[in-house]
């Protein structure tokens, strides 16, 4: 009798597909919007280099561009979180002004460097707390609540200064704006901006807080049903925006050596515009800190090129407006095709 012998069974499982080289997957993983923004920024650098090669490409001018971008850049990081959650903050410029004048009063300057920094941050957090309570627990529309804060903070800043410029006399603050304080040729303000950007990116993309922010912006009711405390999350977001305004106010004090009630003028529009062209959806649900920072750099570079070429500021504002409109149209077209 012939014994049937079954063939050996393959216990190794199916053969895994061959892995593609790493470079083959890079185009698929690359963020097309980020690459586009980098292309726009590179084009602006070329334009600046062609029109004013000796001035635009000078190391001091590039340091100036980055330093000027640092103040509004920190504000934009906070604004990115708020817009991603489906909110808006029209009061950021006024909060920067209030924090800067409150931190540069004679009484505050007696406490030196630490006193100025602490006051600026606390004032920013306090304003953010008021915004957050009114919106999250008071049921007010973000547009109305932050508009009221804008008017109140501007009025209080004017009352504190009586319309005068408050000069900073603290050596520790003034020394930060000197070239001797640069680290490997990088101004300290730029290092602070870079640190805030990295922390903001990690917070939005690598933490539960960031995922909750996106969820609230995408669908607040669904986020609530999923167990997210939507009101508390919104409160935290406006606190974060206020914190960024406080830090930006301190940077502005270092940059200008003074506090004025006119500080932060139109910062809210610049921050919103930078976030939008960077890829953050104005309706909420999607945000990108990297794109927002690139948007800030684009606007700051445009301003610098216009200034070097002695072009009028009204033409600059028209150019910014055109960029904003184009960015919104691209967003709508992208949303309709997805």
Automatic annotation (TrEMBL):
Domain of life: Bacteria
A GO CC term attached to the entry: plasma membrane
Keywords: Cell membrane, Membrane, Transmembrane, Transmembrane helix
Keyword Transmembrane belongs to the record: yes
Chief location category: membrane
GO molecular function: transmembrane transporter activity
Membrane topology summary: Multi-pass membrane protein
Keyword NAD attached: no
TM region(s), chain numbering: 32-50, 62-83, 113-134, 181-204, 235-255, 289-308
Location in or out of the cell: Cell membrane
InterPro entries (UniProt xref): ABC_transp_permease
PANTHER family: ABC TRANSPORTER PERMEASE PROTEIN YPHD-RELATED-RELATED, RIBOSE IMPORT PERMEASE PROTEIN RBSC
Listed name of the protein: ABC transporter
Biological source species: Streptomyces corchorusii
């Amino acid at each position: 009798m012939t014994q049937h012998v079954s063939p050996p069974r393959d216990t190794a499982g199916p053969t895994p597909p061959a892995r593609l080289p790493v470079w083959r997957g890079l185009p698929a993983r690359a963020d097309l919007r980020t690459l586009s923004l980098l292309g726009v920024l590179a084009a602006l650098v070329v334009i600046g280099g062609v029109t004013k090669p000796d001035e635009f490409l000078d190391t001091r001018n590039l340091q100036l561009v980055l330093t000027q971008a640092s103040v509004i850049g920190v504000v934009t990081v906070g604004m990115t979180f708020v817009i991603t959650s489906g909110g808006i903050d029209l009061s950021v410029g006024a909060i920067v002004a209030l924090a800067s004048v409150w931190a540069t009063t004679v009484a505050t300057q007696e406490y030196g460097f630490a006193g100025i920094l602490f006051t600026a941050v606390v004032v920013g957090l306090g304003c953010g707390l008021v915004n957050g309570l009114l919106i999250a627990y008071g049921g007010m529309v973000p547009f109305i609540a932050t508009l009221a804060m804008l008017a109140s903070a501007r009025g209080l800043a004017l009352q504190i200064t009586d319309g005068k410029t408050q000069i900073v006399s603290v050596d520790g603050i003034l020394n930060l704006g000197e070239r001797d304080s640069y680290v490997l040729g990088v101004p300290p303000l730029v290092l602070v901006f870079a640190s805030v950007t990295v922390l903001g990116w990690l917070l939005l993309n690598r933490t539960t807080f960031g995922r909750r922010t996106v969820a609230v912006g995408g669908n607040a009711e669904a986020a609530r049903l999923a167990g997210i405390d939507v009101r508390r999350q919104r409160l935290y977001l406006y606190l974060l925006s206020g914190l960024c305004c406080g830090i930006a106010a301190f940077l502005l004090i270092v940059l200008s050596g003074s506090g004025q009630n006119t500080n932060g003028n139109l910062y809210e529009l610049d921050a919103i515009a930078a976030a939008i062209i960077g890829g953050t959806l104005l309706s909420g649900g999607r945000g990108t800190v990297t794109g927002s920072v690139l948007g800030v750099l684009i606007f700051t570079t445009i301003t610098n090129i216009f200034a070097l070429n002695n072009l009028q500021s009204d033409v600059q504002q028209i150019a910014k407006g055109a960029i904003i409109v184009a960015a919104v149209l691209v967003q709508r077209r992208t949303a309709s095709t997805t």
